């Protein structure tokens, strides 16, 4: 059915288009900003289409290439290992909770649910991680605290519960162990939900700066997002002071400018943005699956 | 009659076996499953249950060497709380900001997300619908650190886009990062910008599940699109809206640390309106090293959070049984 274009409909279209452009704009601004000459940025502000395109900001970052390369290595390692652990550990738990005849299922369900509702907050968590688990300044600090997630567990459990019991029974008759049934049958059948969780977990690890901020003081082992944050706060601090003293102004001229910051954004976020068009449908599916009910 | 008898019978058998033998059989039968559950249970114990137990530190005089459980209790035990609530404007302001800003986010975020979802639903062109949805979902994928840089690019004093725009119209530059009063609005906009696409997908999923027959009937009766939204879509959405809102009300004491720490750049000039419980606790813990105040604030946050979660779930449960978390 062809709908007529009424005034109301026009405003609906306008609203949606304006909002989606507003969502896109900062990304374009950062791309433009990273390709600008420093003088154009300071005299005319950031633009999507700079008059003169330069790769100076990227070259400047390459001068610090070792730090960034290192950050990349750490982020990639943390993302790959963390996501893998997350799928196995949460997947196994989801599988166990989906076994309806197991004794203790109810208690285990509640055990997981409680962690979704209540938490001890930052202070005890920090003390446990540093003093009891001795995670500080180890690579595991960036991985282990985020491995288990009650939401993932329930998402997997719900999906596994929908798989016909007969499959489990026939595998059992063939003498398969529970773990084998889990990874040979259930994990394969649950591909859509596993794909969604891989994406969420990977995104969580890639974008994480919180664990770096709390548990990694060793600057040579910071993940990418934390490098970006450090860079931002250094520049921002000087900028807010710049209205006051000429001394700071001089300092500001010597530190890498906004262009470098924006180039760094491109470098750290680029992989996500490049993969986004291919992956977004899985995210949307995942949200729809686990939307209201945890 | 016989059924009751049988049930009683099995019951007596179950009781007569003592707990140890029952555990033995459960383990014998399910040991593979228990083994598979062990890693997740262990992680949850370490990173969720131990910190819950660690809340007790708020009543103790923390000594690094003795740890959480070894440190001795304060005398009086509520001493940290006395410090927290007596003449501590910063803490009170953090509590106020947390509740006020989360309240703003819930109210306007919900309204905006519903409007967006309903609008997506009105777009007839499939490609346009898909494209706009994908674009509005994009901000969800980036870290708050990057959002912080976006915001400096827009609001920076010298070459921020907004200030360029203002000066090009002959206005005066605005020092956004020096003036706290702008920030509730800025953070509200940023929060909507980052989350609306995501929430809209949730609402859209619900809308797409509605029975087409309602709309068919309404069209036959000559209802306009607006009337269909007003009298069909919105009433049908009501349970979802209420439940999602209640769940966010349950988390009203927990601020999105990334938003308040990264997007404001942790500027002391902005603390008046942007310092929330999480940032306040973070500073007390990591920068000033005041374990007493930070643990007492954290305890306060957890307890109120606990009450809110239980309360909002209780309401959600009464409203619609299936929708509560527990």
Question: Can you give a write-up of this model?
Answer:
The complex is a heterodimer of chains A (294) and B (326). Chain A has 294 residues and is mostly helical. Chain A has two domains: 1-54, no CATH class; 55-290, MetI-like fold (Orthogonal Bundle). Chain A contains 14 helices and no strands. Chain A has helices at 7-34, 38-44, 56-63, 65-98, 105-117, 122-132, 150-161, 165-173, 178-189, 191-206, 210-215, 224-241, 246-254, 258-290. In chain A, helix 4 packs antiparallel against helix 10 (191-206). The longest helix of chain A has 34 residues, at 65-98. Chain B is mainly α. Chain B folds into two domains: 1-39, no CATH class; 88-323, MetI-like fold. Helix content of chain B is 74%, strand content 0%. Chain B is built from 15 helices and no strands. Chain B has helices at residues 2-16, 19-54, 67-70, 79-85, 89-122, 126-137, 144-155, 161-168, 183-208, 212-220, 225-250, 257-263, 271-274, 277-287, 291-319. In chain B, helix 6 (126-137) packs across helix 9, helix 11 (225-250) crosses helix 15 and helix 14 (277-287) packs antiparallel against helix 15 (291-319). The longest helix of chain B is centred in the N-terminal third of the chain and has 36 residues, at 19-54. Classes of the chains: A mainly alpha (294), B mainly alpha (326). At the A-B interface, helix 1, helix 2, helix 4, helix 5 and helix 6 of A face helix 2, helix 5, helix 6, helix 7 and helix 8 of B.
